[in-house]
Structure formats: structure tokens, C-alpha cells
Amino acid sequence: MAYHMFFGFNLAPGTTVDAAEEALRAFSDRMIAANRLVSTTPIARRHRHPVLDTAQCINLDYFVTMTFRDRMQANASVKQIYGRSEPTDSLHNTVIGLLTDAVFLCVESPH
Question: What fold, for 2-102?
Fold first, then answer.
């Protein structure tokens, strides 16, 4: 079963989407190379559609989906991040430093 982490956030003051995208790509590439991640979507900007976007209580402007092969790979990813090993630690801290209001939601899918 595939495992996905939906990741919503706002940009820290002074941060551009391009800077956040570059940092996220460097972190994702490292995690993919370490077999801790399958893929990460580009950063998507929220469109507050008057009918389809009903999450008015969620004040986040940007979203990313990270895909893992399964829950085991996702757990290995968490272990690597919390293991404070380089260069993962620096890359992760760079991403987190460019964002605010981060919210994570995880789901499993049969595909």
C-alpha cells in the first residue's frame, strides 16, 4: 500500500516559492537517494474556489504531497530525520526554516 503525506503550509516572511521549492527539492532528492521517499510533488498554490474549497477554517496557501512506498518506508524516513545525521538534518532544517504553520496529514492508499 502506498503511503502519502499531505503537507500544507505558508511561507515564512521574505521567502519566495522558488526558494522553498529549491530547498524542498534538495531535501527530497536526498531522501529519495537514501531510499526513504518515492516522490514529492512540486509546491502547489491553493485556489480558494467559491464552491469546491470548503475548508475555510484552514488558512494555508501552499501544499505538497510526499509519497512513500509504504508505512515502513515512511517510518524509516522519520527515523532518519530524527537521527540528526548530515546532510539530512541541515536540508530538513532549511526547508522548515522557510515555512510557517505547517500541517501534516497522512493517508494510505491501495495503489
Answer: Alpha-Beta Plaits (3.30.70)
pLDDT of residue 110: 84
> Three-state SS string across 3-65, please?
EEEEEEEEECCCCCHHHHHHHHHHHHHHHHHCCCCCEECCCEECCCCCCCCCCCCCCCCEEEE
Please tell me the distance from the alpha carbon of residue 16 to that of residue 24, in angstroms, as a whole number. 12
Q: Output the pTM of the full model.
A: 0.91
Domain residue limits, the chain:
2-102
90: helix, strand or coil: helix
* Residue range 16-38, pLDDT digits in tens: 999 999 999 999 999 999 999 99
Is the backbone peptide bond immediately before 50 cis, with ω within 30 degrees of 0? no
